[in-house]
Amino acid sequence: LPLHAHVTAHKVSNTADTRKSFPPAARREPFHAGSNRVSGAIPLPSTLLSCTAKYTMKFSTAISLALVAGPAAAFTASSASRRAASALSMGDSPFFSSDIAKALDKEIEYSPGKADTEFARKYGHLAGADVRTVGEAFTQFTDILGTPVNALYKGICTDLVGSLHLIMVNARFQRDPVFSLGLVAALDLVLKNYPEQDTAKRIKSAMITSVGLDEAEVDAEAAKMEAWAQGKSKEEIASALKGEGDSMLAEVAKSVKGDEWWMYSRFFGIGLIKMMDMAGVEQDMSVAYDVMEEWMGKCLEKPFYTACSDSDLYFKQKGKLDMMETMMKEIEIREKKRMADRLEAKAEMALKAAEKDEKLQEQVDAEAAAKEKVEA
User: Sign of torsion, CA 334 339 340 345?
Assistant: First the structure.
């Protein structure tokens, strides 16, 4: 027989075997709309069908809510009825555990500053507050300065304004004498070799004012902290950082330890490095790393990894600035040498011109004397 005849016979035999395997009551007419039976299949109970449809619909609703909740929450506020309905449908559905349902409901019901946490209770009132941008801070810095920044210093000044502004607008930040000491030390280090020192002072003033700080207060706090640390040993400073005693540094340490949400800043770390220098600690990257780990981790009982990283960065940048200082001094020496050479050349030319004029005058005098003799 041809191949299609074999296939047809196989189909017929399979259909016959299938019909034999079911009782006559199971072989019904073809499926019609509104019917719960399918041709050639066992009829499903109506309760099972309704339960399956119910949970299928609930599963689809839960998935839809989970996909739509994130984008929709950014533009519209969810109504109370919708939140209640989503919570009910996901909580009753066997396809979701209670943890997943709670997480999705929490995402749908999220409201900035309204979380049931200590952090939200402390800072929740700041939700939605207007915050200045870095661009606005730099614009104010430029307006206050009123003069262009030297090309070699433009990049570092931009970075300082941006990082200082982001520190100041953080709600967790609290200024203290260690921060002020670090800020003044950093600006002095950066602007130490600025070509025009009058402009360097104006840059410092504009930078501090543009972020909302008072220059006089910052300088006064830094001076007091530096005066206290002068002559202290590393052990004495470590003791004060543990909160022992009634010194300025001990008060700062007590405030830091008592604030769960205290915010470390890069200038606080530079302030500690400045005190290391005054305490006689070798200004080396590896040595300062170990001291910073001890002071931040063991004394202040705060994470020290960022502070140690900032310490390494400080010494790297200091090395670059020292190289820049050396280069500028070499340039200055070369310029002075060139100027001296030019002045020496001018002096030689003036001397030669004077000698030439003197010889010329002698010739004129000799000719005049000879003429007088001839006339006599």
Answer: positive
Nearest one of 276, 277, 263 to 306, comparing CA atoms = 263
Q: How far apart are alpha carbons 211 and 214 in whole angstroms?
A: 9
Sequence-distant (≥ 6) Cβ neighbours of residue 36 within 8 angstroms = 43, 44, 46, 49
| 255/178 Cα distance (integer angstroms) | 12
Interval 37-72: pLDDT, tens: 444 444 444 444 444 444 444 444 444 444 444 444
**Angstrom distance (rounded) from CA 172 to CA 168:** 9
Buried b (16+ CB within 10 A) or exposed e, 354-370: eeeeeeeeeeeeeeeee
Q: What is the dihedral of CA 221, 224, 227, 233, to 10 degrees?
A: -80
Q: Strands, DSSP E only, in 220-317?
A: none
Q: Mention every residue, 6+ apart, whose C-beta is less than 8 A from residue 242.
A: 253, 299
Q: To the nearest whole number, what is the mean pLDDT of the chain? A: 77
Name the residue with tokens 């030297």.
Answer: 150
pTM: 0.62
Residue 219 CA: distances (Å) to CA of 186, 201, 202, 331: 13, 13, 14, 33
Answer yes or no: are the C-beta atoms of 57 and 92 closer than 8 Å: no
Contacts for 288 with CB less than 8 Å, ≥ 6 apart: 273, 276, 281, 282, 311, 315
Helix (H, G, I), strand (E, B) or coil at 197: helix
186-209: average pLDDT: 92
For residues 331, 335, 337 and 338, what is the CA-based torsion angle, rounded to 10 degrees? 130
Per DSSP, the three-state class of 293 is helix
Provide the residue count of the chain: 376
